[in-house]
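Step 1: inspect the first sequence and its tokens.
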Amino acid sequence: MSTNLLPDLAGLLPSWQLALRAERKSPATVKSYTEGVATFLRWCDSNGTAAELTKATVQTFVAELLESGRQPKTATARFLAIAACFQGHRRTPSGY
């Protein structure tokens, strides 16, 4: 997959948060999803990894969360947040 087709997660975050609020997601859900994506972005930055939603990148992120002692429930929540952000971006022709 060409990386130029992948969304810029950091750039999408504010509009995605607005979209979640417009969908009447609870404040706790918006906070949890935001933290999941922010954790992924921090991980990418600290590892020198491009913040791209590729299968390999996300799998490595989740594996490292688990290896660092995070609970499976936490790793799953982070993964679901990343997936929700990507799916939300794909639902609209021009992103958010």
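Step 2: inspect the second sequence and its tokens, then contrast the two.
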Amino acid sequence: MTKQIELRGHHLKGFAEILFKRDIKNFLLKNFEADEVNKHINYLDMCFKKGYGPEFMAYTKNLFNYLMTNPQVEIKLVNHLDTLCNGNLNGSPVKCAYRNNGCKHLQEEDLKYLKELNFSENQRYKIKDILEKISLNKDFFMSEFKGFYLKEAK
């Protein structure tokens, strides 16, 4: 992966899901029936319910796996359509189905995550530094996940 990678603030939840998967699973086991737990066990898989296709989800998982295993890689944190939304890494034809409207409704959420982690918009950070800040803000992310799963259960 050679192209500059940009990620929106709300996409940082994907890293948190990977880092805190065991804690999320424990929360789900305490609050949901077994069949519901299986439906909600992976945040990225929840996106299928939102209308993302299998090709886009595979692209997303590959990008996160690449970044998690290459902590020295730098990415630019942005508040606009990013590498994930546009599917524009190494010429991938896969794109987010919702990118046409620019996902403007997520800009507040992007800024919320950047502010919470004390990151600046349009700045470059190493993945290892991003993961460290996410780890230090576990309570914040767990609260976000709990709210998400409880809302989805309604």
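Step 3: confirm your contrast with the notes below.
The radius of gyration is 15 Å. The chain has a mean pLDDT of 83.
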